[in-house]
Amino acid sequence: MNQQDYLGLSTQEPNRVVSFPASQSLHASAASVSDAISTGIPQLDEAIRPPSPGDVPGRTREMDSNGVLCGHVTEIFGPPGAGKTSLALSIATSALRNGDKVIWIDTGSPLPKVRLASMLKISSDATPSDTPEDPIRNLIYFHAKSLPHLLALLIRPPKGFPPEDAKLLVIDSVSGLFPSYFPNPSEFKSRLPQSGITDKTQIQWLMNRKWNVTSDLGNQLVKLAATHCLAILVVNQTHTRIKGQPRATLCPALAGGTWENSVHTRVAIFRDFLPEDEGNSKGIRFAEVMKRAGKSLSLRLDENIVPFKIEMDGVRGIEKTPPPIILPQEPIEKNISASQRKRKVDEIADSQDEDSDEEFGWVEGNDAGFSDGAG
Asked: What are the structural domains, with CATH classification, of the chain?
C-alpha cells in the first residue's frame, strides 16, 4: 500500500529528531480521514455535512463526507424512547453493509442483535453489493458492567483494541453508568453527615470529580478517533437545565467545557408538537443538528431539523412534513427582586438544586432508573 509522506520525513536525515509545525501535523491527520458513515437518512447526512471545506482541514468538498465523519466524535442525545438507539443501529448497519468492522459497547441495555440482523438482511436484499454474506460477523460487542469497566476499556485499552480495521465505535449509552457513582447534589449533601467529611477542600474535590472523569473520557475518545481514524458515536442521556434558561430545557447528561470541546457533531433526537391539521403525525421523530464541524449552531433553522420514522428495516426520512413548533426564546429577566425569587426549601425539587454545579450550570437529575433500550 502506498502511503503519502504528508510530513516530508523521507527527506530528513536518519536518526534525527524532526520538528514540524502543528498546522502541518493537523493537515496530515485530517488527510488520513477518507470518508464518513451514512446515518440512513439522506437529509440528516446532508445536514451534518460541513458547509465548506474550510470547516474540516485537509478535506475538499468533493470528498465523500456525508454522514458521521471518521476521525471525530459524534453525539446523539435525547429523552428515553425518542429513537437514539434506533439511529445508532442504522449507522452501524450502514458500516456493516459496507464490510467495515463495528465496535458496540453497551452500558446497560443489551444490543438488539435480532433487530440488527433483520435490518442487515432487509438492507442487503434491497441494495445488492459486494458485502460479506454475514456482515454481522464484523460486529465486535462489549458489555461494560460498571463505570470502571468502561473507563478501563477506553482509557487503558487492552492490546489490539480497537482493531486496526475498525471504522465505527458506538457507546450506548456513555452517560448510563454515571448516576450510580455520582449522585445528584441533594443526595450527595445528605450523605456528608454520615461520612464524617468536614474538610472543605475534600468536599469540593468530591463535588467536582464527575467533571474530572468526564474530561478524561472526552479527551480519550478524541484521541482514539484521531489515532485510529474511527467514527466514534456516543449516545447521551438527558437531564433538565434551569439556570440561565427562560424555561426548563433538556440538555445532555454529560457536559462541561472539555466534553463540549470533544464533541465534533451533536444531534438531538426528540418528539414535538405538529400542526393540528397533520393527520399522519403519529410516530414521527425529529433529528436536529445542534453542533456541526465543532461549532454550535445558535440559530434553529428548518434545514437542520430532519423528521424521520422508525421502521422494521431501520429509520426512514420523511420528505414533506411541517417542522415542529419552535417556541420563541424569551429574554431572561435579570431585575427580579429577592422576594420574588426566594422560596422555602421544601418547595424546591431536587432537580432544581444547582449549588454544586455553579461552574457549568448543569442540574443533576436522578435518572438512574431510566432505561434507554428502546430509544
From this structure: 36-49+64-123+133-180+220-317 (3.40.50.300)
